Amino acid sequence: MSKRKAVFAINWMEVDALVQGIHNNPHHILGMHECIDDLYINAYLPGAKVVNAIEASTKKKYTLVSERVPGFFSVVIKDKKPFEYKLNVRFDNGDEVTYFDPYVFEPVIDPIDISLFNEGKHYSIYEKMGAHPMTVDGVEGVLFAVWAPNADRVSVVGNFNNWDGRRHPMRKLDYSGIYELFIPGKLVGEIYKYEIKAKSGQVFMKSDPYAFSSEVRPANASRIVDISYKWKDAAWMEKRENKNTDEQPMAIYEMHLGSWKRPTDGREFYNYRDIASLLADYLLMMNYNYVELMPIMEHPYDPSWGYQVTGYYAPTSRYGSPADFMYFVDYLHSKGIGVILDWVPAHFPKDEHGLGRFDGTALYEHEDPKRGEHPHWGTYIYNYGRNEVRNFLVANALYWAEKYHIDGIRIDAVASMLYLDYGRGDGEWLPNIYGGNENLEAIDFIKELNSKMHELHKGVIMIAEESTAWPMMTHPVEAGGLGFDYKWNMGWMNDFLNYMKLDPLYRKYHHNDLTFSMVYAYSEKFILVLSHDEVVHEKGSMIAKMPGGYEDKFSNLRVAYGYMMTHPGKKLLFMGQEIAQFTEFNENAEVDWSLFEFDAHVFMQGYVKELNELYKTEPALYELDSSPEGFTWINCNSANTSLLSYVRKGKKESDTLLIICNFTPMEHKAYKLATPSGGRWQEIFSSDNNRYGGEGRNNKTVKQAKKAECDGQEHYISVTVPPLSISVFKKKIGK
């Protein structure tokens, strides 16, 4: 506690500033102060009737009086040295409280923290900002800290002070723009906000940008929580640190946590803990080894699916507490499943309680709407060039890795960050200092983010959702790249879906849509995605996109998924598409599990399950994903028959796979399929298998390669190619 000396204990101009709500250092006048040989105790408590200071050691009572300014109480204690005390306050409404005076404590955040934050280099700033339960000078309480450099006054408000901004004004720390206040008391579980008085005179309330938890929407106050948790995933974390995902299978199940399954007991959502076991069992059954969650950071609007974030440091309270979400991650790790989070540093919504115009000025965003607003999305754009804003975002990504053991971050809408003219016409955007459309500050932010993540959290995967041909996305920062580990292959997705939607009769005119992806397949490290974006807004679900009658739709979808799983690149499929759900994604309804009444959907689920198993157990499908040596065309020119054949290779020659896809409903008997070598070849997978809903026209016998030129190879086998099918062959070693 402080022992401050002053020539005059009470400066009535300061008291007036306090009353006017424009004093940004209330500790200078409030609390206990030495003046020569006397002590002054001052308190500003509007609505108080009786205020006493009670000496902790002797229980002696000193009565503070209010004479000159209503609500300002003071007492002079003669010939007394500083002592520890509590305030006992009785209010006009009859409420009575006793507590340690918040205004006797020295600043907790030190100058080193301030300097690092000012430079944008405080990568654990979340340990200082926000609301932190702690003990200071032996007193239990909560440290509140918020960045609002342009405010005239910031106060902490909550039920504990009747939401009265006059009760707990904060101290502005020198050289920082940070406001801080330690409030004694048992406040864990309480809700709070910051009341901010802008220089314009406007007074408003904001949620805490660094809050670890929030109320359940539509309420939006922040909540004080203790986020300590005893993790049990040490073995997982150690293994992850040394894992090379480039040479490992990544079968990712993308999902919206609130609408995968809904409880039947009247609750709106499952708790994180409840759904952990349900989801893990399902993912293991389906042979997925990663789950990617659409944003679980706090957001006010359900139909945004989490992509308009207001609480970047808070897992949404829709599904439980921070500890509940930690349990969710811990449990999935115990089952061998990695957790990837969608993250949205590209923009933020304009909700009144959020980051927009936070201290009455454009603080987190640009002032000029040509830089600071997305015209199509109605959201604000971050000012990546402001150190403290960049620090807020970089530290946030690191926070999810540090505190929640997240295994990957998928960054949404990267293209909108990279291009200053994204979604804008002529005259609607401002060029960079060189006259170009590249957002240089966003580029620097991305490089710093990826570099620090790889430095501080080895094994965490950084993924870009980027829809243009921006070069070197997944190349190291040191080599001039942006430093991502993987990029969503939006080009493949668009071409492939356009192809699959076509009536097979017309596919021969669009054969290039199938093969073009291999032209650039090794320019970046890719994840092939059939994501939520493709099954919403009247685009149709995956099965609904397929042409033909009922059975043809399922055959088309089987060959589509088969081609995806045997094409180079990691794999991602959105929930509901593994069971061929006909309806589009709807955040208000769970996956249409009722479809299991129909065999075709049961078969499709089994097909995806075994396709994932094939992918995970055949090294040729993942070991050389990022190397041209891992893929060879056998025949990519049979446009008229819409056939494709190719080879996938692993590190061992014995792992080589031969694949043929037929994208028409025409069967080919005794088809000469060129092989990369002689020997005996066995079909190990066929989408036309009866148990997947096919007709069973697969190749049931081992095929001996014949020596003769075929498609540029020296050998071939004679096979049956079922209509709308994929077949996978592997060389049989030994008898």
TrEMBL record:
GO terms for molecular function: 1,4-alpha-glucan branching enzyme activity; cation binding; hydrolase activity, hydrolyzing O-glycosyl compounds. Residues 254-605 form the Glycosyl hydrolase family 13 catalytic domain. Gene3D superfamilies: Glycosidases, Golgi alpha-mannosidase II, Immunoglobulins. Pfam families: Alpha-amylase, Alpha-amylase_C, CBM_48, GlgB_N. It catalyses: Transfers a segment of a (1->4)-alpha-D-glucan chain to a primary hydroxy group in a similar glucan chain. Belongs to the glycosyl hydrolase 13 family. GlgB subfamily. Catalyzes the formation of the alpha-1,6-glucosidic linkages in glycogen by scission of a 1,4-alpha-linked oligosaccharide from growing alpha-1,4-glucan chains and the subsequent attachment of the oligosaccharide to the alpha-1,6 position. Monomer. This is 1,4-alpha-glucan branching enzyme GlgB. The gene is glgB.
